[in-house]
Fold each of these.
Amino acid sequence: MSNILECKNVTKVFGAKAALRDVTLNIPRGKIVGLLGPNASGKSTFIKLCNDLLTPTSGEILIDGKKPGVDTKKIVSYLPERNYLNDWMRVSDIIGLFRDFYTDFNEEKAYDMLKRLDINPKDKLKTMSKGTKEKVQLILVMSREAQLYMLDEPIGGVDPAARDYILDTILSNYNENATIIISTHLISDIEKILDEVVFIKEGKIVLTKTVDEIREESGKSVDSLFREVFKC
Amino acid sequence: MLANLMKYEIKGTARLFIPLYLALLLFALLNRIINPFGMIESSENFNLQVMFSIISITVYFILIVGIFVMTLIIMIQRFYKNLLGDEGYLMFTLPVKSWQHIVSKLLVSMLWTILSFIMAICSILILVDSDNLFKEIRQLISRFTDIFGSAGFFTLPYYALLSLTTGILMIYAAIALGHLFSKHKLMASFGMYCVLYVIYQVVMVLFILVFGKKIFTPVLSSPIPTPSDINTLVFSFSIPTILIMAANFILTNYILQKKLNLE
């Protein structure tokens, strides 16, 4: 199996509205993939489907050859686009929770990153700012030695200085057989770390290419190609 | 994994219950020491002591009622917020099955409900004169064995636990159903609870209509029903309750598994 993620004709309908339409997509191992599209284009829906938080209306998703479920949750590390931390917990409590549930969680790594970002593990989450909570979540997610990381808008709420550190963190914290899927509309910030891009528009995949292909064929950056494809 | 889920569920709820229990026991003790009832009886006119006594009694009763209201609210809030709110993003990406989420929440809710009862009883034991009380309890137990026989010490707790389980699962099913609505989810959950409750009553009535003659005849025909008659009656009624319990569980699990749609 060379593909970590295989998506066959996946459609997801909410009421009368289709959030994803007939999406077929294969994502190989060992790549950093940008899932790029404007707001409400279906990025989050796609990621939620891969994490078993939604069930597809039709079609099939396979992660490491398996349908989303307990087995895939063991190897997928997911960062949702919102804060999911229990407010009453301390950072050390939530680290304990990750250690108890995920066998691939590297506790040492987590404490190391907290230290570098000056976050006190004894602090309660309630007292933290939104940006700090986002950093904590990202640290938790990247401290797992997962096979597939799915990061939904990982840099949306943090300042540009922390953004660079976070991107470095992402790059230096995954092994080369793992794949990272990053969904965002802040393309220029992450362009330099991407291997491949997937453009998604109104629930449909409109383009799947490697960054090198884009540069060779059109001579454009991903950011300017994005602006062209999604021109209003 | 179930044990791990329960560990975090207890951690998440104990911080709310333990202070309440301590406050209740403390006020029971305080009321025992200052004996406000005696104080009110013995004083001839309204004074500061009487006022303090009334306040002390009132706080104690508010705490007793408050503990049961809190038990219910926390039961609802943990399921709604921890599984179907933002925290659900974490809970449902843990490598555990959805039935384990339900069972862990159910067992911990049952634990707190039972503990709340025990705490209420403990506070009463602290509050009242214990010599008389133990005599009364012994009398109560002998009355109980007259009616239910010693088997009653099994059948009644069994039915109580069964009803508690069914009640909690019905609340979970109602919240899960309410979550399927795109707006006014809490209102919808309340409406769904009413619907489920009516269905439960209908099933019970149908059960009595169909099997009533068989079940009630031995109890009604003898002037004093034997303990075994009464225990058979309790067991018979547990059959439709078990069915309703199972239906609520399966429904909740199905929604969490297949129809989950976090905000």
Amino acid sequence: MAKASFPGGIHPPERKALSTRAPLVRAPLPRRVMLPLTQHIGAPAEPLVNVGQRVRTGEVIARAQGMISANVHASITGIVSAIEEHPVPHPSAAVGECRALCIVIDGESGNADEGHGELKQKDEWLRMPPLDWRSSDDATLIARLRESGVVGLGGAGFPSAVKAQVRQRHAIDTLIVNAAECEPYITADDMALRTYANDIIEGARLFARLAGAERILVGIEDNKPEAIGALRQVLKNQPDDGMLLVTLKEVATRYPSGGERQLVQLLTNREVPSLGLPADVGVLCHNPGTLLAALRAVRDGEPLISRIVTLTGEALARPGNVEARIGTPMHELLAFAGLQPERLAKLIMGGPMMGVTLDSTALPLVKTGNCLIAATSEELPPTPPEQPCIRCGACETACPASLLPQQLYWFSKGREHDKAELFNLFDCIECEACAYVCPSHIPLVQYYRASKNEIHAREHEAHRAEHARHRFEFRQARLAREEAEKQAKRQARSRQLKKPPPATSQPAGDDLQAQIKKLRIAQAAARAAVKKAEKTLARVSEPGQSGATDLDDLETQLATARENLQATDARLAAAQAQVQGTATNDQDTQPR
Amino acid sequence: MSLMHASSPQARAATSTGQVMRWVLLATLPGIATQAWFFGWGTLINVLSAAGAGVALEALVLRLRSRPLGLTLRDNSALVSGVLLGVSLPPFAPWWLILVGMVAAIVVAKQLFGGLGHNPFNPAMVGYALLLIAFPVPMTQWAAPHGLFGPDASSLGESLGYFLGLASPADAMTGATPLDAFKHKPQAVLASEFWAGEPLPPGTLNAWHSAALAWLAGGALLLFKRIISWHIPLSMLGAMVLIATLMMASDPSHHAGPLFHLLGGAAIFGAFFIATDPVSAATSRKGKLYYGAGIGVLVMVIRSLGTYPDAVAFAVLLMNFAVPFIDYYTQPRTYGHSRPNRGIKVKRIDDDEGAQ
């Protein structure tokens, strides 16, 4: 079999050595933390605490809302001083900065009598009971993951508890540990593996069991020899439990080999279908940091209140990786790494390819913040002015998804969204390889994002129109049902009064029979419609399938179908009563 | 503190369009030098005046369009168009011919369509085709291979005189191109008899062959620097060789061989420097193969059946028309799709409908 590979890719300067020289250390406890309620994909968490309340490290301070959401925990011990909006980094790096509701906690100083001159900050923990994952059942483990607020730490921020339930819908055979870390500068996974390789593999085994995977593949780029060494050591020492095959797979360093789809292709030679998930081809991908956090949540009962973050860039005197509490203001982290403010020109969260520039160092570290680059202006110079596209094809050569970036650019710029979709705009993973190589310095992915957003906005609009139509239909159906019932009542009343209905409006017996037949058919159809609507609703309301608006809409449709059924029932009953009525009338009249 | 705000990516490869064009210019040097060596000062005067006219015209139009001059001129694209048209024109062409060609190329074919990147047709070839149709006589008087310094060569001064229109080159100074001569071979004469009759000024074939090989060297440089991909040159030349071989096999007495077709005219130059113009060429790799092959076929068809002896310009322009069509049918298979999309199947999202 030919070695699996993906097309394109680029080799930007790695610059990882900058932050791997110093060992992984703990960052000092922050005096104050700012904890956004949206550090994950999905619905924001709902605050559980009040201003002025004392919280301990690890206490749940905001509860997940809905299917896709995650708890937020206090990351230091102290007093909730405010619940207010602050600028925060968005969980999706594509958006950058946004304002979100945050819980602010002011740290509590220790007792003065402990005094060593300076007051030591208190760090009082509230842990969950430790669990042995091998002897706990799936439901307990998933509940624990949900409770501990673990989300994908690689950047996406998808709640891990939801991902752990993948079995309900997909058959998984392979769990991939995505340790490729292909973005330049970032070394958080590298350092995590060097330090906690054993725990990470243990975490992978935990997720593999939850997903029902038969094997674990650890995908890592060959530019991390120390991490590879650590993994080898662990795999050698760990007894093979016979059930689960753990394989270390080194891949050649090439951006974006750590893209989920690309890594799946590299390691398994399977392609994730367009608009699908790796689970569609039986694969589940996890970031090492997530596995570590999950294992700690289960084994040690520690919720996700800290993460490993790379502090790097030439404006830092002591770049390195630190384990920092979530919510720590970035300037504290940067100061810890020896920031030289006069040299700082660009502050980037994430890597230099897909990361975003931040406007301020006052933002808090969030769960998805894997790297902070404090770059000088020489290091990552400002973008040169955009020049016209000459369709040189450099982007096409670099694209890992075999798209035609120059065509997509053309269509996006001309707002020919339908054509952009025809050229598979939505298969773009926004890895920025095309923009990196573009000799005309065109921010290609920005154009694609604008186009995608516009398409989504239009779809949303169409959706809303559909919604309105369904609500209108429901109203019509309700009115029709009421009318039918009224009619039926009126007929019943008139029969009770033994007053034969006026002959003009009385259909002949045969006509009535035909009408009843028709109504019976209509009734069967309406019943089928109700059943169908119920089924759709049941299917869609399964966990994690679709948004709340869809559910509302489907409920409206179901209600409409029920109204229709009731209306037909009423009409049918009225017609049948009428038939009986005429029959008795006939009997009354016959003897004469 | 003011932090720089920039859209991703924050890192970029150190390339620029101007640099790409500089490599193209560099790659034309062997071809220009060889052509000048054999055909005299006229080639150099053509190249320099056409390039100068190109830049001047581009600057003029940019000013009219109120576009920033510096940034656009620095992309060197007008220079490239000028050089490419300059080497295509017969040495000793008068100044007005070059000017008309450059106006057609830069003003009409390029800037009127929106400038660099927006031209559906290859600018240099639009200029060339216009001149060939409008001024067939000066366009078909190629220089005889008297060299730069040979006994019969025109001096620089004389060449400038021809350029300025102060004098016109004597008949001895000009000669037909090999393709032209062969095209006008009488029907009764066999190919072998024709060549035995020394129909061209001595050294002509050698000069053309050398120039073609020099362009090949320049093309190799472009390939090596990955400025162009191999798809278009290979498919274009491949198609020409195939057709020429078939034709010669069918009737060797009246058809020239593949080597003659490759080296006797502008085929190599066109394959590496004209057809590969990325702006007006097909997009995907597969599309480029079709595009190049189409040019090769058209060149051979026009050379053998048409009235023009060489046909690179027309073939390229005709295939430029076909590019949007080719592009819709040659998309690569995208990751996650079982097969590539073909043709135009778009669902209309109507603006008016959404707005009501």
